[in-house]
Amino acid sequence: MLALVMLAFTANAQTGSGRVALVGGRVIDGTGNAPMEDATVLISGGTIQAIGAKNAIRIPAGVHKIDVTDRTLMPLLVDDHAHLGQTINGLDPSPDAYTEENIRAQLEHLLAYGVGTIAVMGTDRDLIYELRSEQEAGKLPGAHFYTAGRGFGVKGGAPGGAGAAWDVNRPDTAEEARAEVREVAAHHPSFVKIWVDDSYGRAPKMKPEIYRAIVDEAHRHQLRALAHVYYLDDAKSLLAAGIDGLMHSIRDQPVDPEVIAALKAHNVLYVPTLVRDESTFIYADGPPWLDDPFFRAGVLPAVLDKLQSAAFRQHAASDPDVGKNSDSLRMAEVNLKTLFDAGVRVGFGTDAGMPGRFLGYFEHRELQLMVQSGLTPMQAIVCATRTAAGFLARDIGTLQPGQRANIMVLDANPLDDIRNTEKISAIWRGGNPVKPISPE
């Protein structure tokens, strides 16, 4: 593994031009097509110039060749629902975590785990727009991001808990909501985020007239509106209001033909975030992935000690909603399979970046849960690459000519076992090699 990483860095240093050919690997291109065996990927200027069978691709003089025989190439993952700057150590929330230094570190951490692009869902502050300018100027390493800026919640309600101090809009009236959307729109975010949920009936829910005003005003400014959702009835009401994406699963009951038809009629993005639901109860028993070297490589020893402690597990088990949260995941898995089979546009997201939801590792765990729900590894990969990317940009998410050279090189085939996405031996972002996370 180390040899391939070092070879990638050496190639970049030697050519100085980003002209590289990855030769002899298996290519999963993210489109759902069958893998290409013994293929060559030709990279120049940060993009894929050609891709195909090794004996059909002419490699120009001066291009550095890297042998990836017996390895699998696939696109970097795209997370349509993540958060930045909510915690410094991945576990404990902190109002002081939203800093440039921390966000830069988190973006680099994501990329080391093979996550090339994320969408930040409503928890950003104005600093994000300064960082976006740095990103556009090519001065911000790590995963690429899109942002919803400051989202829209309810006074005394969501987003709450650990996020009680979040700098989000909480309008009381439709008129206030429209004015606040206009204020957010002035920063030119990629979309607008809404929290509708009532936390199992314990908190006020956003009134329909308010989220209808938010959706309508967002559309007036050519912005898509995305919603945190839990209940089937709320999903139907949001769809009737013109929502563009449901950023969590419907988890209270099975989906029905009415909601399926509405999702398909408007090509609404459905983002399951199964690992988010797992994280709400799994710590009570101690998740088996605490022993996964791929997870352990990305957390501080003190955080791992805390996660494994009896006190932490007892605290997690004392949550009165543990049982409900477990049931919510089971329903989310059933609904994911139903919606995918019905042809709904299923994207990919994790809600990672919140306390206890670990950026980088959780994207791979989400793939595993999608397969556990009944999707094939190929179907889950397409959700996490082409479909998730298609909601954000046109030049990422697949390995095809003209696309950014955002590539993971794996030591094993994820179509045989989806957990093989954890076996990263090299990463390329925009044609440049990046050192991957290194499990012991």
Can you tell me about this structure?
This protein is of the alpha/beta class. It has 2 domains: 111 residues, Urease, subunit C, domain 1; 277 residues, TIM Barrel (Alpha-Beta Barrel). The chain contains 14 helices and 15 strands. The strands form 3 sheets. Strands 1, 2, 3, 4, 5, 13, 14 and 15 form an 8-stranded mixed β-sheet that branches. Helix 4 packs parallel to helix 5, helix 6 packs parallel to helix 7 and helix 13 crosses helix 14.
Indicate the topology.
Blueprint: H1 2-15, E1 20-27, E2 36-44, E3 47-53, E4 64-67, E5 72-75, E6 77-82, H2 100-112, E7 115-120, H3 127-136, E8 144-147, H4 174-185, E9 191-195, H5 208-220, E10 224-228, H6 232-241, E11 245-246, H7 257-265, E12 269-270, H8 274-279, H9 293-296, H10 301-308, H11 310-317, H12 322-341, H13 361-372, H14 377-390, E13 407-410, E14 424-429, E15 432-434
Overall geometry: globular
Write the element-wise H/E pattern from the N-terminal end onward.
HEEEEEEHEHEHEHEHEHEHHHHHHHEEE
> Which regions contain 5 or more consecutive residues with pLDDT less than 50?
1-17
Strand content: 15-25%
Could you list some keywords that capture this structure?
15 strands, Urease, subunit C, domain 1, eight-stranded mixed beta sheet, four-stranded parallel beta sheet, 14 helices, alpha/beta, 35% helix, TIM Barrel, 440 residues
Task: Describe, in short, the structure shown.
By secondary structure, the chain is an alpha/beta fold. It has 14 helices and 15 strands.
